[in-house]
């Protein structure tokens, strides 16, 4: 079987999507299939990483932070993609990653070439856009593009039942399978703990995350636990808001900001931290989403403090029945500060962290997710 993966982001760029797609490619290769990847050229200084798949890159526009994000960068990827997908060797199936504009290109080209495709709908982009300062017209156009791409798919894969319910509410009736999400245990092995007064937020912080609440919570926490540091690793649209809030509270000297780093470089930070932090802002249309950053933390053996609604709550409550996975908090400064205090006053031991890492590898492995996706791709190709 020949599979073509289409995504604007792929390894070695640090992101949940890169790890996920790389795991799917690795599984397909292990099963003896051929894999082509059509993706953007990585940032300077980051040569393409391949485990046997043919990675075909082309230059794109990037935003000020180096991401392929925004209308012009998306167009700079999607327009060349149309020709590359149209004239490349015919695959048996295409596996695609949003944005919705890419879904439009894939549906049109695959229809012309009579190629089935599988759509990875980890979330609903047009829902997330409602939390950004964009016009209603832009949201309606994005919604139309997204539904067009989804409805052309032979199959859709997603991370949770909440996304399935949202797809059905939007009128998408295509077959959907919940393949879940997991940790790439090869990229995030157990991280040896270090005794530091540190909390880490590792990943993007967009409007639906509402990560600015962590700054208010940390300010309250510092009143009883001075000397701690809150380290943000990554970036996002809400970074200026987070920085402004820290300045307003007078705690800029206790907060650090690091650019995105490769997964292998994140391990020491997770090992040093008392816990990693993750949030989902309540009362938004995005409450069904996973905070995917928790999986890498759990895999490394670092407890998680999660604040907000959604399936991440159930994930941590379930894990806490077997190991010490962390704290679940109401999305509020006082409640999060209390959870920080509990974690700081009784930090997880090395044995507890090792047990957490082992448990995560057994129950939430990215490899298991990749096997489920590979099976769907094989079945889709067989059906034609």
TrEMBL record:
<protein>
    <recommendedName>
        <fullName>D-inositol 3-phosphate glycosyltransferase</fullName>
    </recommendedName>
</protein>
<keyword id="KW-0328">Glycosyltransferase</keyword>
<dbReference type="Pfam" id="PF00534">
    <property type="entry name" value="Glycos_transf_1"/>
</dbReference>
<dbReference type="InterPro" id="IPR028098">
    <property type="entry name" value="Glyco_trans_4-like_N"/>
</dbReference>
<dbReference type="Pfam" id="PF13579">
    <property type="entry name" value="Glyco_trans_4_4"/>
</dbReference>
<keyword id="KW-0808">Transferase</keyword>
<dbReference type="InterPro" id="IPR001296">
    <property type="entry name" value="Glyco_trans_1"/>
</dbReference>
<feature type="domain" description="Glycosyl transferase family 1">
    <location>
        <begin position="187"/>
        <end position="345"/>
    </location>
</feature>
<dbReference type="GO" id="GO:1901137">
    <property type="term" value="P:carbohydrate derivative biosynthetic process"/>
</dbReference>
<dbReference type="InterPro" id="IPR050194">
    <property type="entry name" value="Glycosyltransferase_grp1"/>
</dbReference>
<feature type="domain" description="Glycosyltransferase subfamily 4-like N-terminal">
    <location>
        <begin position="19"/>
        <end position="178"/>
    </location>
</feature>
<dbReference type="GO" id="GO:0016758">
    <property type="term" value="F:hexosyltransferase activity"/>
</dbReference>
């Amino acid at each position: 079987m020949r599979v073509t993966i289409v995504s604007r982001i792929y390894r070695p760029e640090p992101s949940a999507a890169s790890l996920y797609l790389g795991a799917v490619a690795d599984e397909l290769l292990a099963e003896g299939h051929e894999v082509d990847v059509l993706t953007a050229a990585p940032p300077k200084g980051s040569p393409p990483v391949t485990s046997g798949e043919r990675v075909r890159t082309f230059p794109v526009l990037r935003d000020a932070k180096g991401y392929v994000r925004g209308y012009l960068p998306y167009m700079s990827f999607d327009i060349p993609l149309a020709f590359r997908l149209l004239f490349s060797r015919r695959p048996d199936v295409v596996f695609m990653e949003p944005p919705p504009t890419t879904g439009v290109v894939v549906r049109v080209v695959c229809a012309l070439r009579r190629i089935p495709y599988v759509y990875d709908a980890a979330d609903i982009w047009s829902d997330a856009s409602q939390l950004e300062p964009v016009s209603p017209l832009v949201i309606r156009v994005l919604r139309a593009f997204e539904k067009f791409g989804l409805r052309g798919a032979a199959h859709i894969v997603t991370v949770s039942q909440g996304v399935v319910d949202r797809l059905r509410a939007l009128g998408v009736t295509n077959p959907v399978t919940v393949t879940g999400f997991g940790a790439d245990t090869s990229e995030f092995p157990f991280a040896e703990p270090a005794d530091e007064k540190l909390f880490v937020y590792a990943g993007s912080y967009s409007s639906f995350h509402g990560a600015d609440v962590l700054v208010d919570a940390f300010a309250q926490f510092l009143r009883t636990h001075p000397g701690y540091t809150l380290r943000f690793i990554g970036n996002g649209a809400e970074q200026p808001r987070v920085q402004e809030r820290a300045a307003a509270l007078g705690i800029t000297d206790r907060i650090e900001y690091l650019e995105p780093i490769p997964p292998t470089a994140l391990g020491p930070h997770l090992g040093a931290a008392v816990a990693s932090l993750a949030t989902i802002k309540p009362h938004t249309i995005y409450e069904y989403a996973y905070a995917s950053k928790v999986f890498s933390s759990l895999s490394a053996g670092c407890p998680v403090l999660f604040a907000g609604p959604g399936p991440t709550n159930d994930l941590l409550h379930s894990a806490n029945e077997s190991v010490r996975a962390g704290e679940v908090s109401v999305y509020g400064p006082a409640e999060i500060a209390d959870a920080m205090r509990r974690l700081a006053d009784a930090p997880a031991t090395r044995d507890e962290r090792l047990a957490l890492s082992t448990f995560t590898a057994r129950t939430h492995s990215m490899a298991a997710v990749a096997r489920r996706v590979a099976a769907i791709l094989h079945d889709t190709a067989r059906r034609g």
